[in-house]
Amino acid sequence: MSDNIKKLKLIYKPFIIMAIIFISGYTFLNWLILIELELFSLKGFIIKFGLPFTLPWILVLVWLRPKIRVLKLTKGNGNLPFLYQFVAILTIIIPTIIAQEYIETASGKLTAIQSVSEINNQDKTKYYQITNFYIDKMNIGVNTTFDVSGKHSNRFNMHIYIAMPIFESINDTINSHCLIWYGKEYFRSISNKLEEEEKEEKYQEFAYQSQIDFANFDPSQFVYLDRIGNTEDRDGLIGAAKKSIKFDPNYQTILLPINEPFENRNGNKFEWIFGALGIGAIIFLIMLFIPKFDEKELKKLESGKPIKDENLTNFIDSLKPKEGYFITPILIYINIIIFIIMVVSGLGFVSFKGQDLLIWGANYAPSTINGEWWRLLTSTFLHGGLMHLLFNMYGLLFVGIFLEPVLGKTKFLTSYLIAGVLASIASLWWYDATVSVGASGAIFGMYGLFLSLMLTKKFHAKFSKSFLMSTIIFVGFNLLMGLTGGIDNAAHIGGLFSGFIIGLILTPILKKRRKKRKKRW
Questions:
Q1: Residue 244 placed within a domain
Q2: Is 121 a domain residue?
Q3: Burial class (CB in 10 A: 0-12, 13-18, 19+), 466
Q4: What total of structural domains would you count in the chain?
Q5: Pair (145, 200) in one structural domain
Q6: N or C, which end of the chain is more exposed by having fewer CB within 10 Å?
Q7: What are the beta bridge partners of residue 186?
């Protein structure tokens, strides 16, 4: 049997089957549980992007990664194994995301009704055509929200949500509360590097242009209406509806106008599901044909014996609390659990809004200084989004592996918490009114402590030399990224210096403990 045939049999065919099962299985469960039966509700972003982006990583790392090891990819070829895994993951992720968009629009039914009151008196559908209606532009509600996005939070996003009551006729606007709302959004994104005064100027310009556009806007010009699901936009529009005198908390259905034929709602999504899967599958196939087999690893795979992935095993082991390394994984778990609770609560996935972070305990000068000092600590266990959490937990894992065994549980935890609080105080001193969250201040404190112990020769000379440069690069890179905007460098620097000082204080204590151990021996 030729090598290429073996690759098809051992790697490619199982991977394609796995990809198809995941894409179709996830899409079917989404349709059955969330769309058809409506057993519970999750944020649309989590269903359409969050889980399709996260779950394939687990599949590929656990199942496909050991199989890729049979290829000769490591010697002299850089990090090619990761490239193969990344292509495989994208081959699953992209079609899955497109499939969720397709299943939502394709399964949505169009219901023709005479008046808006009928919407609440029959089974809900996604799309509606209404014969008799009046959209009230006088009793609107307006809600303005802000958030950040992009790499290193480099974009500052402004949203103006407008909710307009929909009545059967103009006569109903006198005494009636609104049963159904008509939504409209204005959006603009600017650089987050701008000063606060410049942002305010850009916002005023945006608000003025939106007001002009809304004055000329005719809400009755639409083909059909789309009942918006559990999304960030719906939250913004509900917030707008609450500011209208016609708001009734018992009726919170939001409809969005669609100005194209109903038959065009799916676009080319169905074709692109197969197109994206096909393109990814072809690229992965070509990549498989290039390298040769690692005969030693191939024999292990063909023998049917389970292949041990030492890197994955070591990573999993680093997440298990054990003697001499207990606090670091516990801190990682606490941060992850808090993040998951926030996601399940519907606050977001990739990023959270500043207002939500404030409610959960973010550091914010006007609130903290006025008696809510607990924010100095709680803010160190909150994160602004998924990437923020992942980068911080990686940094904590790296430094904790080496530092906690040296300090011990009590000293490590105490140093971590003190550095985190001092970092929050530094942020408070530097910023007048900025929402600050993240474990990075405390983690920078651990790196500062790590640096002080290396410089005072607490670690072996060879170890210090190899890891000193890595630590300096990590710290320097993060501080430089902070200069691009959207990152709390005050907390980073405050944590770094406080940790360094803590390290200098602990050095003589650690040396005494080391001498006592030598005497016992």
A1: yes
A2: no
A3: exposed
A4: 3
A5: yes
A6: C
A7: 160
Per the model's pLDDT, the better-predicted residue between 313 and 182 turns out to be 182
Dihedral-angle region of residue 494 (phi above 0 means left; psi in -120 to 50 means alpha; beta otherwise)? alpha
| Locus of tokens 């907390």 | 491
pLDDT category at 76 given cuts 50, 70, 90 is very low
The predicted structure's pLDDT at residue 292? 86
What is the bridge-based pairing of β-strands 180-191 and 253-258? parallel
CA–CA dist 208, 52 (Å, integer): 39
> Phi/psi of residue 178, each to 5°?
-80, 135
The CATH code of the domain that includes 388 is 1.20.1540.10
Asked if residue 248 and residue 386 are part of one domain, the reply reads no
In DSSP notation, 27-82 reads: HHHIIIIIIIS--S---HHIIIIIHHHHHHHHHIIIIIHHHHTTB--STTS-SHHH
Q: Which of 112-126, 182-196, 354-368, 454-468 is the least confident region?
A: 454-468
3-state secondary structure 151-207: HHHCEEEEEEEEEEEEECCHHHHCCCCCCEEEEEEEEEEEECCCCHHHHHHHHHHHH
- Same domain flag for 23 and 168: no
Nearest residue to 182 (alpha-carbon basis) of 250, 130, 110, 260: 130
Residues 6+ apart with CB under 8 A from 88: 15, 60, 64, 280, 284
Residue 196: pLDDT band (50, 70, 90) is confident
Confidence of residue 435 (pLDDT cuts 50, 70, 90): confident
pTM of the model: 0.69
- Residue pair 181/250 in contact (Cβ under 8 Å)? The answer is no
Q: Report yes or no on 124 lying in a domain.
A: no
Helix then strand then coil, in percent of the chain rounded to 5, is 60, 10, 25
Domain enclosing residue 195, as ranges:
134-219+224-258
Q: Place 203 in a pLDDT band, splitting at 50, 70 and 90.
A: very high
Residue given tokens 């889980």 in the structure block: 51
* 255-264, 411-420, 444-453, range with the lowest pLDDT: 444-453
